[in-house]
Amino acid sequence: MSKKTVWFEVEEGESIDDCLKRMASAGYTVTGRKEEPMFTEVDGEYVPVRQLIRFKGTLTD
User: Which InterPro entries does this chain map to (predicted)?
Assistant: First the structure.
């Protein structure tokens, strides 16, 4: 049995639930989650823009 792993990113304007539904419709199961803050520089200071969320999906053949 081989397993294929793909990372799915929650797109801007997409809810977490929508991303999970997209994964399920592609046949993937969530096996991990990663979050990273995204920043931009404004007047020499770093300001948070959004949170980048990725889900690790595993497809079992």
Answer: NETI (IPR025930)
